[in-house]
Amino acid sequence: MNSIFKSLLSWLLGTVLGLCLGAAQAATERSSEVPAPLPWTEATWREQLKSGPRPAAYLFTTSYCSTCPDAFETLARYSEGREPKVALIPVMMDVGGVKAQRHAQFFTGLTALYAFDGFEPTIRQTIDPKWPNVTPYIVLVDRHGKLQHSIGPPNAKALKVWLR
Amino acid sequence: MHHGPKGDLATGAAFAPDGSLWVAGLNADKRLFVQHASGRPLGAWSEPQLLETGNDEIAADGESRPKLAFGPQGWAVISYTMPLAKPYTGFIRMLRSVDGGKTFSPPVTVHQDRQPITHRFESIAFDRQGVLHTLWVDKRDQPPKGSGVAYAGAAIYRNTSLDGGATFGPDTKLADHSCECCRIALASDPSGELQAVWRHVFGEQTRDHAFAKVNGAEPNHVTRASFDEWQIKACPHHGPGLAPSEGLKDPPGYHFVWFGVRKQRGQDVAAVRYARLDAQGAPIAQTVRALPDDKAEHADVIADGPRVAVVWRSTEGPRTSLKAWLSKDNGKNFSLTTLAQTDGINDHPRLAQQGSRMVVVWRLPQEIQVHELDF
Q1: How many of the other CB atoms lie within 10 Å of CB of B56?
Q2: Residue predicted with more confidence, B62 or A113
Q3: Three-state secondary-structure class, residue A35
Q4: Over chain B, what HEC string results?
Q5: End-to-end C-alpha distance for chain B, whole angstroms
Q6: pLDDT at residue B200 above 90?
Q7: Contact B237 A153 (CB under 8 A)
Q8: Which residues contact B157 (CB under 8 A, 6 or more apart)?
Q9: How much is the pLDDT for A18?
């Protein structure tokens, strides 16, 4: 009886351990799926507006912005399954490289990741001179290139106009 | 002390009891250093003294910076947030000196809670009795994701040390529902008791400011200090400033600066605003006004008797200006002055005070500037 119990316990522990390791491995794989950030320079916005994807959403974020993942999720949920496919592009404004990738793990479904290595007010002035130091700052680009700006998650009306 | 394109310029500043001005920050190799300078006008900075922090990563950007505080008995402490591997998490760490800053101990974690969650954006101060207070933004009370229970923002937690940072009392909650990533401002009342003000989430998502006595007996005894009614689920990363208001003809209270967006004639108007708070922390309505600069960012306030200085940075094109708004009548009238300008990256202005002497420390990639505030 004892040996049966021990075998059962051993099998259970092994299964649980295996599941945990599997989950951990899956998490690691997911994090490695985040693409390396592309450099965001002062010229990038101009280029994106001229020849970037449409429709698209640019989410300007920072490593300390804990409200940003929810805002991204709102965009991802709203644009899921739409045709043409919607580009979702986070732009990390304060960290680059591995740190940017680490934070981008929260942005499930991103199309591309950018990182800016410069003075934050510069990027804000390029996008919108009236943008105060608040993230997320979101720019929605519709299929015709028309822009809508939003501090925090865009409201329902803005989302509707974006992908109509 | 040159830095890369971005650098980690966020720097703390404080006067030591002997009148020397100290700064703590990160060098180009991201190592913690202190430097000091003496005299008036200030002499040259000492050689940077590198401090041993083991493998700690140290936050030194924007609202999160190393901080210095000097206490009695030769005590000096340096605090910082150590980000952990998981985003938005961190520990508050502290180094301690018992010889006025000549040497420092290795860092220790200040709070008793050791979960890998948010413990960030700390503020430190010694009160008049020599008690060291540490306050920070803490997420231990957030329900697990998916639990269906809503909890807006984070919380403000605190503890005290009676021996200059050698040991710490229990973590206690000051208030639920703080904003997640703004600095906490501290100031003493006339009796020497510390008061705090921070960005707070009122209701579901109204991000205004709360004021509270640090050493209060019960949590959540707060006074609302601003009424912008800014409803936003976002991170302003733009904390307030607080200084005692002790003008001879006015009842004691506080000078308060903050950033917010409020509706004016149907439009959202973003501004850094100034107000005087009464002794309980409520704004005195007729004193509320916007700073004379619609690009003002990261303002702070400092005061000595009727002399009040509000200092901020303002960026237009490639140029950033360091500006001051000076009052000699306890905040009734101000005059605007530009202290310095630079092109490219720069830190937020940091204020330091010893009695009637008030200075602005402004770190650029190539130098740390100090501007005496002359009224």
Answers
A1: 18
A2: A113
A3: coil
A4: CCCCCCCCCCCEEEECCCCCEEEEEECCCCCEEEEEECCCCCCCCCCCEECCCCCCCCCCECCECCEEEECCCCCEEEEEEEECCCCCCEEEEEEEECCCCCCCCCCEECCCCCCCCCEEEEEEEECCCCCEEEEEEECCCCCCCCCCCCCCCEEEEEEEECCCCCCCCCCEEEEEEECCCCCCEEEECCCCCEEEEEEEEECCCEEEEEEEECCCCCCCCCEECCCCCCECCCECCCCCEEEEECCCCCCCEEEEEEEEEEEECCEEEEEEEEEEECCCCCECHHHCEECCCCCEEEEEEEEECCEEEEEEEEEECCEEEEEEEEECCCCCCCEEEEEEEEECCCCCCEEEEECCEEEEEEECCCCEEEEECCC
A5: 31
A6: yes
A7: no
A8: B111, B113, B119, B135, B136, B138, B140, B171, B172, B173, B174
A9: 39
ipTM reported for the complex, 2 dp: 0.90
**Domain A38-162, CATH homologous superfamily name and number:** Glutaredoxin (3.40.30.10)
Q: Cβ contacts (< 8 Å) between A155 and chain B: which residues? A: none
Query: Tens digit of pLDDT for each residue in B211-232?
Result: 999 998 799 999 999 999 999 9
Residue whose C-alpha is closest to residue A136's, from A66, A35, A86, A47: A66
Residue A8 pLDDT more than 90?
no
Inter-chain CB proximity A65 and B345 less than 8 Å = no
Q: How far apart are CA B256 and CA B355, in angstroms?
A: 19
Q: Say if A63 is an interface residue toward chain B (CB within 8 Å).
A: yes
Among B88, B228, B238, B320, which would you mutate to test the A interface (most chain A Cβ atoms within 10 Å of its Cβ)?
B88
Q: Rounded to an integer, what distance in angstroms lies between the CA atom of residue A103 and that of residue A106?
A: 6
Tens of pLDDT, residue by residue over B306-365, are 999 999 999 998 899 999 999 999 999 999 999 999 999 999 999 999 999 999 999 999
Concatenating the DSSP letter of every residue in A88-154 gives EEEEESS--HHHHHHHHTTSTT-S--EE--S-HHHHHHHH-TT--S-B-EEEEE-TT--EEEEESSP
Is A136 in the B-facing interface, judged by CB distances under 8 Å?
A: yes
Return the residue of A nearest to B320 by Cα.
Answer: A121
Q: How many Å apart are CA B1 and CA B13, to the nearest integer?
A: 17
CA distances from B225 to A119, B186, B257, B288, B324 (A): 31, 14, 10, 11, 23
Per CATH, domain B1-178 is 2.120.10.10: yes
